[in-house]
Amino acid sequence: MSGVLTTDIVLPGMPSLPALYRRAVRHAAVRTVRRASPPDVLPDVRHRVHGVVADLGALTRFQQLLGSAARDTLPSAYVHTLAFPVAMSVLARPDFPLPLLGMVHLSNEVHQGRQVGAFEALDVVAWTEDLRPHAAGTQVDVVTEASVGGERVWTGRSVYLARGVRARGDDAATVRRDDRRPAFDPPVPTGLWGLGADTGRRYAAVSGDWNPIHLSGPTARALGMRTAIAHGMYLAARMVDEAVPAPHGALAWRIDFATPVLLPGTVTTSFARTAGDGGGSGGSVVEVVGWSAKRRRPHFTGWVRAE
Amino acid sequence: MADQAGAQTTASPRTAVVIGGNRIPFARSGGAYAYSSNKDMLIAALDGLVARFGLQGERIGEVAAGAVLKHSRDFNLTREAVLGSALSAETPAYDLQQACATGLETVVGLSNKIKLGQIESGIAGGVDSASDAPIAVSEGLRRVLLDLSRAKTTQQKLKTLATLRPKDLSPNAPTTGEPRTGLSMGEHQALTTAAWEITREAQDELALHSHRNLAAAYERGFFTDLMTPYRGLTRDANLRADTSLEKLATLKPVFGKSLDTPATMTAGNSTPLTDGAAVVLLGSEEYATANNLPMLATIVDAEAAAVDFVHGDEGLLMAPVHALPRLLERNGLTLEDFDFFEIHEAFAGTVLSSLAAWEDAAYCKRVLGLDGALGSIDRAKLNVNGSSLAAGHPFAATGGRIVASLAKTLSEQGGRGLISVCAAGGQGVVAILEARN
User: Fold this and answer.
1) pTM (2 d.p.)
2) How far is A196 from chain B (nearest CA, A)?
3) Smallest Cα distance from B52 to chain A, Å
4) CA pair distance A182, A175, nearest whole angstrom
């Protein structure tokens, strides 16, 4: 980072997501009235929460909704879910320069050196970095790490976009626009995800993330969406579990979101195992694409690499 | 005979061995696994086995398992569990169901395939959840829903709906009742217990031994390489290491209360409803040697039997009593040739009625067609590491628990062991395991 000593703030416990969303709504209102200063500086802080332990009942419900076996390890995406309130608490800070509500999730990349046990106490730390212009606004990385007894076991990097928000001196014209999307050439489908209208609510119930854009048509429209859309992490969790149903060692994955999945809806999927990394480690990589067959547009692309 | 054309088909089958086993601790119904499905638990048991024997990504010859209480959506339960496990997705699997004998029968079936050279390795086992039991709609509602799906016009649909009665809306939960007699398994056993005049004290004593033996087995670390903790459980939740005859004597009878004889069967000397899963890794000697895996015991032979309990000829859970003499005769063995007996404790009364029957010369002559009593079993050789009364009995998981435990006992102490498992429908399976040397 900038070389200045980063401030570490240890939170007394896991922040409450609903309270963070309420704070975000308040900030949004203030912002509209006062015209916030242009976003060019990220708060130089890391928020920490010590001793985060999964609730077994909640974990089981998450695993069963996502189709993974209810085993005694945390699904990789569940670590993100557990740690998410810590990341949110950074984004909900008054000095965080982008409007939290309505930020669009562009991608996630996760690396973990080993599987995380359901009973392990995690120390979670989250911060933001690399505020930078994007063709459609401003993007930022949210980095979250989970450690067990000083050993980092899980690192996640989420990229968010604040649409239409521009930093001082950042003229839209200076950012290379790539309006011409490359034509989408769907791969051979291997599966279908039929997502009911309640998908967002059911995922909210197991993840604790009650972001209104996922819950129902009216709540999503209130935030400028056409209708409710699937949680990115719901799609990611299903992708990871379907690609590697029984991870037992190191695991890495990435998902890039394209057009949102409108609910209810059907996602056509392709899971293709490609050769391992060539290192002879016995690992494998599964390339994943999810798209709308009707609109011939991709919803997401990703990969999952397992030891 | 090597130069004969038929040599291969007349050659002795190969040897099938038990390589190891894994189970999750058994939970009481509504306890630690209340929200885990059969698939979840079977995968948890497979996970531990895969980790213990380094089977990640391996194509196993075949996996056979089953559940007694099964959701219709779990029609391919075992294959789905394999796909959710770290085993190679190219591992075939099939479901099997023979009530409480399911687990043992999967071992018998796969060991036979190994002996015939059809497969080199196999994983046998079973799972059951009394907590996450399937609940079906009533027969009336089911009929209406099916008719409704076939109705074409609105008028037909309304007419079909009109046949629905309020009582059709109450769901059906599974029971332990026998479809043909309407009696629960406990009530059936109460008849047998009374017929063999098994006392309350004898049943409580057997239950006490089961708890003490299981507790002792845990104390000396016997289950360390046979079990993987799950959902916070590290021991069978039903185990009462500190129980006593006095405590067991305070329990009220729950079965046989309407009989003329005193009711003797209590919650203490009957197995409780339980959740759990158990799997066993089997292989040919060649497979074990090639993969540097242990060989705990040889699976020698097995015999299934069934009895006519519907017409009162025999007690519901007495089929193993009939299977055993046939198995012994085929193998030229007597009860004296065994060092360990694993008789599944569905109820204490089941074990004691079986022992009494084998000791009864008149019964053995008349019913089993023997020359005299089959013999007695030294209690010191019976269920030496505890059995279902202490561990609990998730129906299809019991066979895997017993086979793995007996195989390990034989590998430690040598000798020959007998397994006897009774099952609903008046069935039973018995099997012989032998130490490797």
Assistant:
1) 0.91
2) 19
3) 12
4) 18
